[in-house]
Here is the input.
Amino acid sequence: MQSPEAGPAVSPTQIHLTLANFADEVVGTLARLFAYVGTLALFAMLALAGLRQLPDLRDDDPAGKPGWAVATRSRPAFALSRLDSSDKTASYTIFRHPGGGRRDILRWAGDADRPVAELEIYREGYEFDVTRPAAAGLAVQMGLDAATALEQAGLIETKFGPVALFRPSGTTACLGYLKRHEEPGLQISGFSCQGDTMPARRAAIACTLNRLTLLTSGNEPTLAELFAHAELKRRACDAQGSADWLVGAANAQLRGTL
Here is the structure.
């Protein structure tokens, strides 16, 4: 007689079927899990690919950003009115920045291609650093070491207004110059080694700036307006330079900081 506590006997076939069903459920669950993880990975890769297409808005890694590059397809926007048929520019180079800035650089060379003068017109873009000193980089522009100290060398009067002059401390071989306009954002700078005396060098720079003309303003009406007003104040070139005390190099200390 069978004990009342004993249950029905489980056959090996039932055990096998139960284990098979359990294995099928495990396999199905793992398959669904892998499919879910694969879908998440696909979405993650698509999101990363989309982020790579967005512009980098971070400002903490300037070294990774593109800088100035020669704009071979851009046309010259400035020129110098010629004094005679032999007067010509040795080179004209245009640089552009992804931030919107543009630099037009005119250079003149003497014997053995030695640079004797340079004129740069910088139209500022978003890359312009307002905290940087105005004369920063002028020493490099003059072919000197970046750490070279420059001292004030007075002012000259031009059709663009007073222009500050600079020279390397203790020398008078070349003069640098700088003029900045807030509106439009424009900076005119350069250097000149022309002339045997200080008045002659000052006169050479003033003559260069007074002869600077605008060929095209593009989509910048304020630039065209600036040059139109400047033309009304154009002066003839003076080979001897001005002896006015306001622009004289010997009286730079009377005007304070430039």
Q: What stands out?
A: Residues 199 and 241 are 5 Å apart (CA to CA). Residues 67-255 form one domain. The beta strands are 69-70, 78-80, 91-96, 102-109, 115-123, 150-158, 161-168, 175-181, 186-192, 212-214.
